[in-house]
Write a structure and sequence with these properties.
The chain is α+β, with helices and mostly antiparallel strands. Helix content is about 30%, strand content about 35%. Strand 10 and strand 11 (about 135) form a beta hairpin. It is globular.
Length: about 220
């Protein structure tokens, strides 16, 4: 029957369409594929859509090795978008990429990301508040003691992790690394076989191993 043939053909086309992989991403085979420029948002970074150097309006010489870093060290940055001149506060910009290195905005300052991959790692300067009776750490929660004496704040260098795919930044800890490694079951199982002290000592090694095995993708 004609209608049975049509039904069979429709079903075949439907199943074939489901088997075709979604072409919504592009493999990142090298960081050299990342555009050198400013990324207004994490979404722009995932799409590899940067404000390129030649679009930036600045008195700084574009041929300087750290041109972008010097531009982003100002309070504002100006660039051309079509026929429009756009001026934005640099503290609202997600990050920039120069000399094969990513720099991301964390609380209004840009920090170099020395370990780049599916799990990114970077150190950053943070403020902790104290009085004579103890400290309060806004990043790790809670206080250490209660005091009634003079209070103030101090700066410390802390380690942070960033999930490449979500852009979420979290304070570094062994527990957080364990959570991120779960995306690679074999590597996670290997990590969890270590004693607690060994896991603390080898977290950076396992982050690098995870990144070596995890392909990164741009979004189209």
């Amino acid at each position: 029957m004609m209608w049975r043939s049509l039904l069979f053909l429709t079903s075949l086309l439907f199943l074939s369409a489901k088997c075709i992989p979604q072409q919504d991403s592009i493999p990142m085979n090298s960081v050299a594929q990342i555009q050198e420029g400013i990324f207004l948002t994490h979404a722009d970074f995932r799409h590899n859509t940067a404000i390129l150097k030649n679009a930036i309006v600045s008195t700084i010489n574009r041929d300087q090795l750290f041109f972008l870093a010097k531009v982003m060290d100002n309070d504002t940055v100006s660039f051309k978008s079509g026929n429009t001149l756009v001026k934005l506060p640099t503290r609202n910009i997600w990050g920039f990429f120069q000399n094969n290195t990513l720099y991301i905005n964390f609380e209004g300052r840009f920090y170099r990301v020395p370990v780049f991959g599916a799990i990114c790692y970077f150190p950053a300067t943070v403020e902790t508040y104290y009085n004579t009776g103890g400290f309060y750490d806004p990043y790790f929660g809670g206080g250490m003691g209660i005091g009634m004496g003079p209070s103030g704040k101090t700066q410390e260098i802390r380690d942070f992790l960033m999930d490449y795919y979500s852009g979420k930044i979290i304070p570094y800890s062994t527990d957080k690394v364990e959570e991120l490694l779960q995306k690679n079951k074999a590597l996670y199982d290997d990590f969890m076989k270590l004693k607690r002290r060994q896991r603390r000592e080898q977290t950076y090694r396992y982050i690098r191993k995870f990144n070596e095995q995890q392909m990164l993708y741009f979004l189209k």
